[in-house]
Design a protein that fits this description.
The complex is a heterodimer. By secondary structure, chain A is mostly beta strands. Chain A contains no helices and 7 strands. Chain A has one domain: Immunoglobulin-like (Sandwich). Classes of the chains: A mainly beta, B alpha+beta.
């Protein structure tokens, strides 16, 4: 199972700024290991970010998103202590879900 | 080709004739079931090996617009980690696509921005070699785009 995500959500003047770091190899399938054997593709395909049940961003990623994908975006209307929830699913069907509370400015 | 549509005595059944007609339509590049095709568009776009294919599968066009701002460094040492930032000045829900022209699969990511989320996204992508990066925004059924060239010293696809 992948490591926990790092989520930081901070409310500033009515806008919530969200940074998400998702530890994941994001293997393209184009690389080889030290012995020259191909490394199979393994990457996150779907990401859904919601606040109190309302979706604020949904993304479809490809193998061309960098290792340990980082997302930064902003949405209106989040309140301090609301819960930001991030869920991802990868090409092996693994999924991970993490949460963070919105911080004040 | 016209021969396909002429009823032939050896066509064993109506089903066979229909099958031939559909085959002829597909061969002619027409899509008999547009709705079924729409469902597979996104998967096709992500699997496409060319910029044209990645754009045409979801029906996107490159329509340069001053309302889309794409920020990518001019020079990148490591193509495996290229920061990209897209800001759109179009309001309302929209979909933001990021494409890297020279990648084996040009469509890098798709973001759906619902009402209430600012039309802005920042992430890091892999770029195979020096090429153009595109941001394409679909809003209200129309496409808007921005392009930026970037020079990469070490590609972000293979080993090393």
């Amino acid at each position: 199972m992948a490591e926990p995500m790092r989520i930081r959500a901070q409310s500033k003047e009515g806008v919530t700024h969200v940074h998400v770091l998702m530890p994941h190899p994001m293997e393209t399938g184009f690389r080889t290991d030290d012995a020259g054997r191909p490394i199979g593709a393994h990457y996150i395909t779907e990401v859904e970010i919601s606040v109190q049940g309302r979706t604020v961003l949904s993304a479809t990623l490809s193998r061309a998103v960098s290792q340990d994908p980082l997302l930064y975006f902003r949405f209106e209307g989040g309140r301090v202590d609301d819960t930001v929830r991030v869920v991802w699913i990868d090409t092996r069907g693994d999924r991970r879900s993490d949460e963070a509370k919105i911080l004040g400015a | 080709m016209c021969g396909w549509f002429v009823p032939r005595p050896d066509a064993s059944s109506r089903r066979e004739a229909l099958r031939l007609m559909v085959a002829a339509l597909i061969a002619a590049g027409l899509q008999p079931w547009p709705s079924a095709r729409a469902a597979e568009n996104l998967a096709l776009a992500f699997a496409s090996g060319s910029l044209e294919g990645a754009l045409s599968a979801p029906g996107a066009t490159l329509d340069p617009s001053p309302e889309i701002h794409l920020t990518v460094p001019d020079f990148v040492e490591n193509g495996a980690v290229v920061p990209v930032e897209i800001t759109s000045q179009i309001s309302g829900p929209q979909t933001i696509f990021v494409l890297s022209e020279a990648n084996p699969f040009p469509l890098v990511a798709k973001f759906f921005v619902p009402e209430g989320t600012l039309p802005y996204v920042s992430t890091r992508i892999k770029v195979a070699q020096s090429c153009n990066i595109y941001a394409v925004v679909k809003a209200d059924g129309r496409y808007h785009s921005a392009m930026k060239a970037t020079t990469v010293t070490v590609g972000g696809c293979g080993n090393g």
